[in-house]
Design brief:
The structure holds two protein chains of two kinds. Chain A is an all-alpha fold. Chain A contains eight helices and one strand. In chain A, 68% of the residues lie in helices and 1% in strands. Classes of the chains: A mainly alpha, B alpha+beta.
Chain lengths: 176, 257
């Protein structure tokens, strides 16, 4: 890779790594694994950086790789082997953040944990990263119609989740 | 957009520390991956180019020696019994059967290993000495190797964190002699296998939990250890802690796994 192209990569990582890691965290519920998935995605991104940069879709591609890396790590690969597996979303409070118990963050994290991975990804990409339906479809490598249906199902589950029952937006804005 | 949901998600993903990986290390890892990929592609291209030549030679050779037709046989792929992964490429290697098979057969240099009645945990070094893999192997039952059953990446930064720990778990039946050919024996044990790179300054790595206390085996900058529980259902009562100490005996790391 040419030095100037590599410098662009360095600047991208410097400015975007944290945002990508936050997305990964909402997908897997564990900061350590989110960091690992983000780093893995950034390493993969390096290899194709020049080509992706020429297409002008670096941000979208990076997010796509982060999502696929994180979801891949959640998936069971065979009947006998579990990589990560059920240890994700352990529902355990971060000991360094005792006040977090009292905050809403745990409520939404637990609610997200109960969604299937694809539905969780739809919610995170649509409402956290604020992607459009088409952009979310591109990140998840599926059709826009799938994103719409998965998002609708996810929101219905979130709306009926006991801990989120009082979330007025979900109830009011025609998401039934 | 549901603004309240957005707010909740923002709060959930909020934390005081910003994730800032070492970009130099990321670039180095990216370069390494690119180099490896080029080598693999070049090798594949060379093999493809050589195939017609080999085919011609073989056809010519076979044409001269007429033999009776033989019944077709299908080569059975050798079962991958060891569960191996590299800490700096965990996501790919832990799920790549071909890579694991290659490691088991050709990475014969064992840096450090601990064995027991249920199998072994080994750190293997690549033939060129540049890469390391953590492998867990089980013992056979009814002639079928068990291998490892699962793996997790624990507190392992691909490039940024000093504490690299990998955990596997597999079926275990304890240290007493057991009839391995008896599949129906009541066996609810689990053997947890841990391995990692010894962080700089660390001279002792202690394990406590499940009613046991012991030090990990350390050699050439890597460590391995195995912990056993008779019954996985009681494992959470006394959780496993890994504690690391420096030369002066000062504790420098402690985490529950």
């Amino acid at each position: 890779m040419r030095p100037e192209t590599e410098q662009d990569y360095v600047e991208f990582v410097t400015h975007q790594a944290n945002a990508l890691c936050r997305t990964a965290y909402l997908l897997c519920g564990d900061w350590r694994r989110a960091e690992d998935a983000t780093q893995e995605a950034l390493i993969r991104l390096y290899r194709v950086w020049g080509r992706i940069q020429r297409k002008g879709a670096v941000g979208a591609y990076a997010r796509k790789v982060v999502v696929s890396t994180t979801l891949d790590a959640l998936r069971r690969k065979s009947s006998q082997e579990v990589v990560g597996g059920d240890d994700y979303f352990a529902h355990e409070t971060d000991p360094a953040d005792p006040l977090g118990v009292l905050e809403n963050r745990l409520v939404i994290t637990k609610a997200l944990a109960e969604l299937p991975p694809r539905q969780r990804a739809c919610v995170v990409l649509r409402y956290f990263d604020e992607l459009s339906v088409e952009e979310t479809a591109a990140a998840l490598d599926c059709r826009p119609g799938t994103v719409k249906s998965q998002t609708l199902r996810a929101l219905e589950k979130l709306r009926t989740h006991p801990a989120l029952a009082e979330l007025s937006d979900l109830a009011v804005k025609g998401l039934r | 957009m549901t603004s309240e949901l957005k707010t909740l998600l923002d709060q959930a993903a909020d934390r005081p520390a910003t994730f800032a990986p070492d970009v130099t290390d990321l670039v180095a890892a990216g370069r390494h991956r690119t180099r490896v990929r080029r080598i693999v592609i070049s090798a594949a291209a060379a093999a493809t180019a050589a195939t017609p030549v080999i085919a011609v030679v073989l056809v010519g050779h076979l044409g001269n020696t007429r033999t009776a037709p033989q019944p077709a046989t299908t080569a059975q792929p050798k079962m991958v019994t060891d569960l191996c992964a590299k800490s700096d490429d965990f996501f790919r290697t832990a799920n790549d059967d071909a890579w694991r098979q290659q490691v088991v057969s050709t990475w014969t240099d064992k840096v450090v290993e601990v064995t027991d009645a249920d199998g072994a945990m080994t750190v293997r070094r690549s033939p060129d000495g540049s890469q390391y893999a953590y492998c867990v192997a089980g013992v056979p039952m009814l002639g079928q190797p068990l291998g490892g059953f699962g793996a997790t990446l624990l507190n392992v930064g691909i490039v940024t964190r000093p504490y690299q720990i990998q955990r596997y778990w597999s079926m275990g039946c304890g240290d007493d002699p057991v009839d391995r050919d008896n599949r129906t024996m009541p066996c609810t044990g689990v053997r947890y296998s841990y391995a990692g790179r010894v962080p700089e300054g660390v001279t002792r790595i202690a394990f406590s939990g499940l009613g046991q206390q012991a030090n990990a085996t350390i050699k050439d900058g890597y460590w391995v250890h195995r912990v056993y529980t008779d019954d996985i259902r009681t494992g959470n009562v006394d959780p496993i802690y890994i504690t690391m100490y420096d030369r002066s005996g000062k504790q420098v790391f402690k985490e529950r796994y």
